[in-house]
């Protein structure tokens, strides 16, 4: 099993709902808390597992704005795990989720250097590395209704731009979406083989306009022949 | 990358210490210029140990949660960082035993000493390699992901070690030609390697903001990074030197770290300037300290692409020396234009 | 296998359902509570609005709940200190309410209009309105006048439902969606759900907006329009449609006043009014009978086009003929519109043809039997799957009423109103065009009003003015300056009260509105006005009461602060009598109930109003013997009926809770709501879901349940006779009140066009556009709600500073560098802000995120918070008054028809700041902390599992 996310850039409106719902769940979750620094002050910042960046592609007026959420890609070749000297970082063989054991981490930052996707953030207060857990504690919590055994961000996303599933299973919705929509992984040249994929904006066929009435400039209002229509 | 003093000191001091220990062993093995006497050997060994220890201690300052530092020895099968830790620690019993044996036996060439000193030397060299590999294995930082990094680490560690030895020999009035020549040679090699390195990192990397996001249609510009202030990522992977400053610092590296020691040692070879040569290792350490700062400061983590902060390129070698950049477009995604 | 993840211990947790209040979308939430602390707020999967999803603000509700800006006690300005100095003493609720009740009792017994009670972004207007009505003051309204009255009014005077919250695109069926001037809107989550549905079906989404962020980012086509010109774009599209005869004949004949005959006697009384028979029925030309017949009769065959002479010799023309004459003129040709809108003519033409293609070539059918108003049976609903939505990009201009009407007209011509795939109504809409009910006109001591303070004027007689034509309301709503100001003009209250124009007031109550900051134009002047004293040293606004939950800028100016609870701590009813949360297929309402125990000395404002109602012996809140009728808000909601069987909550009515929508009060109603996860939903039978304006079953039903006073069909008014009556008054051709002032006459004549038209926004007509070449507008960030989300420790990490965004190439041409400081100057003032050069911005437009700038010291933020030191409000540049003109009184900077605040008419110039000129300007005095204010942690570790919170 390779659990992960597929993110639809065609519908992501950049609302940050996934980011805050992630923050909300995980600040009391297995790697809790997600510390905030100077929360009411000059330079508020904090630990987040999911961040949305916004890009502009192309020049005005042929520009497109792309909202681009990024969290841990739960890479197949998770170098972040390989390089971790303490064994705090690990990849679960059964589902591919990459986690950091908070009891083992020594806060050396090395794994964050190894991560190309900026998925790891050090919590200065706990001194440990934190990252997206794929909400593993929701996925396997049998006390939750089945529909809710999903990542918090996926449940929250109002644009349904986040899909969750098994990318190993070719029949899963996520695998199918990736196949059908030309889904891609980021920076494949680095060979991390990320599990998460992105669906590019759709290409839409132009709306036909040649099957409509021709303009008839001669036909002015008064010449409009009425149609008999029963009221 | 944000250069961390702790890590700069770690690599700088421990590298020099290991280099010193290795060359000391080599010198005594082959009694180059007669080798060092037991006292001198012991003092130099203390020196090497002190450097290594200073490096190791400073490295723990880099840890946010040092209480788990001991766990760093557990993953030597996969992690170069762990290997470095294990090897560095392994160095101690041999180095300390060697020191003790030399000191108490007052011999520098007994079988035991040869075994201990050479084992320590080999472990030290392996540690330098691991240290280099900690960086070289990261595909996320193009400036590091090259065999030039361990090669540089070797060259620099050994060059400093050699200049310390040469200085020690000069200071104690011993016959100095061979050792000083080795130091000069190593410094020259280090300088050339460094130059090659700087030339190499000047090439633009294949990964751009376009390929990183998958939007190859047009210019990609960051509109908003999604948080007004910095995050762990923007701080850790921050750009902290301008191109111009980096260029000046590179000159400092070559002048202070290489040219200075080289001049002092060569002058000494020719004219025997005596105790002035002692300054050579100090200069080398200083210059290489700057080199180490630059090593971090110039490293560009790919995540900077996502923040729209990857500079077009790093300081470059003069135009005539530059190769054409390879075309790199690993990924093309098309979508409807707006 | 790895070690199992630590699954959380649910034993101490409780799940409760309620309704989000971080914005007016009002999503259903599922709240996990542990130890009286919120563990997790999720969307409620079963909720009709959000169906399980939740936006950024909703999820960050936790941080609102632990905001250090929460008010803790009633506060009184320390006697002897100056207003706005921020020196408060804590008082008890009894002291506060005694003091207020005494003051109000005096006002009520003497001149009730001396109380002005204005409420901001509340969702309980039904209660505040009732309270004001009972008190007897005309001076009540909610925030709609500065928000979106243009949208509400345009729709209600044309269709019977409206953009804003009274209608929705048919997300499940629409194939083509045009979004006009919307960044986020009230329907935040449903919109995002809907856009995804549309896109996954392969539908097209067109975003018409000078800025490309948020929704426009995912639009298939972005149309960067020049602000304030949308009416022209829509009417030019209509030009294209008409010129190719692309409109829905049947729809126009059956459901609209297009065939009605309009009297054409220019210069005479009665010109431009609908020609009617003695019974008042509009007349049409019957093509079969070849005679005039009543336009209300079924089975007639009205001519859509034509000009006739009446028996008494007057010329009459059909509405459709007038319309075609108007919009076919060269003025609306795409080539001309292109010059105004900045959108290429070819694009305008293509857009028109695209919507026509979808409407007429890709129509859809739903096989359901239904009966139309005339009793005819149909076996299917035929839909034209083009839908549109528009909001403040249209509304916040002084030509917004007409612009919104232009967009509606486009929809009507395409026949896309309340049809499958079109723009659907949400119960209790549609209502008659316009809805019945005129605004109350008379306030009498100790007497409730005889009508609602707000209503729908259809003629000058309905204005709320005295015999000499002077406004009777403090905000001058329903005066000649804003005749159909259906939502009042809250943005004018402070200015008018301070000027004593039309009169002085005594007490001003603001509930839930940050009027000293982001919801007023001209913030700095407004703050000065609040401090302004008369010759006797008395404050010009003698007593200012602010009911808020947090330490806003306005709280700082209050004489009396009444602290409210948060949305997780009180009972609330989201009522059909108010702004409804209904869905097109289902009638819905919902509640909130206390999920957390109170940890502060605060009271829900509803409870306070009920309590005050009792103390003041307002009839609706008092028994005949003078004792209070209701023990509190919960009790009030159960028992209060606005008409027999109709109360605030529509679910589980009747003694045993078995009745929906209408029925006797049910003492267990709250419990039923709570059991049902906080909402009530009544699914309309399939046959009642479309064409409700003419759907017999629906019309009968709407009448029965009390939505509408009659079951008559609702006829859409392409041509507004009501508006024409006002124009006639301006022309001096009306038997009834006429404006005494030339400027009012001129405004009536110019802007009260019975057919939608384009005119240049008023401010822009008065300033030198060479001097001020940029349009300056705002957008709501999706993850921030006005001023009140900057206190949210999570949300403010995402955005703690706003910038002035401008087109990159244009900015560079002015020598402006990305990230540099610039001066932005309007006719009203100047500000220094930081510029960002981007691609997604129309060349003549600059914009910023709304409501980010803060006054230092407020909102629980530290004094050096970037919101105060770097962020800014565009409001400083916007004037509540139009630029002065010789010999003319100062006029409100609002739509001349509805009084809608014209926030986005602003024109500015942008110049680079000199080297060294950095930091935002102007800055405002540091606000001192309130007594007992919570400490602001430097490090926050919110965690319900490990009890440790900074
Ligand atoms: N997240 C969040 N949601 C909110 C609010 C909030 O503060 N935050 N506020 C709520 C309130 S009170 C309201 S009133 C609604 C308002 O919701 P919106 O209608 O979305 O209001 P604005 O954010 O003002 O968006 C106006 C949009 O119109 C564009 N625009 C400006 N002028 C023109 C024009 O002339 N023509 C066109 N076509 N476009 C133009 C602007 O670029 C902007 O994108 O949102 C509600 N929802
Ligand atoms: N420049 C510019 N200005 C604008 C706009 C614009 O687009 N551009 N938009 C305008 C529009 S449409 C609107 S609606 C206004 C909105 O502006 P406001 O109505 O001022 O909205 P908020 O800033 O959200 O302030 C509402 C107040 O309600 C308080 N509050 C929050 N929750 C509660 C509660 O539970 N109980 C009580 N009693 N109080 C509570 C908050 O603390 C805050 O003080 O801004 C207007 N101002
Ligand atoms: S919640 Fe969905 S739409 Fe919003 S930013 Fe995240 S992925 Fe995009
Ligand atoms: S995204 Fe980064 S942290 Fe996540 S698995 Fe890949 S390398 Fe590791
Ligand atoms: S920071 Fe923690 S998880 Fe990361 S490499 Fe170091 S020990 Fe491993
Ligand atoms: S999967 Fe869970 S942890 Fe990962 S980004 Fe989504 S909410 Fe956060
Ligand atoms: S849109 Fe967001 S803030 Fe508004 S009610 Fe829904 S969840 Fe709450
Ligand atoms: Mo609003």
Provide structural commentary.
The complex is a heterotrimer of chains A (231), B (338) and C (950). Chain A has helices at 17-26, 79-83, 110-114, 136-139, 152-156, 173-181; strands spanning 3-8, 36-37, 45-46, 51-57, 64-70, 89-91, 98-100, 120-123, 128-131, 162-166, 197-199. Chain A has 231 residues and is α+β, with helices and mostly antiparallel strands. Chain A has one domain: Alpha-Beta Plaits, CATH 3.30.70.20. The longest helix of chain A is centred in the N-terminal third of the chain and has 10 residues, at 17-26. With 338 residues, chain B is mainly alpha-helical. Chain B is built from 11 helices and 1 strand. In chain B, 54% of the residues are buried. The mean pLDDT of chain C is 96. In chain C, helix 4 packs parallel to helix 18 and helix 22 packs antiparallel against helix 23. In chain C, the strands form 10 sheets. A 7-stranded mixed beta sheet of chain C has the order 5-4-25-24-23-6-7, covered by helices on one side. In chain C, strands 29-33-30-32-31-34 form a 6-stranded mixed beta barrel. In chain C, strands 11-10-9-21 form a 4-stranded parallel beta sheet. Chain C is an alpha/beta fold. Chain C has 27 helices and 35 strands. Among the domains of chain C are: 75-151 and 434-563, 3-Layer(aba) Sandwich (Rossmann fold), CATH 3.40.50.740; 762-912, Barwin-like endoglucanases. Chain C is globular. Chains in contact: A-B, A-C, B-C. The interface between A and C is large, with 93 and 121 residues. Strand 2 (36-37) of chain A pairs antiparallel with strand 35 of chain C, so a sheet runs across the interface. Residues 22, 25-26, 49-50, 71, 132-135, 151-153 of chain A line the site of one iron/sulfur cluster.
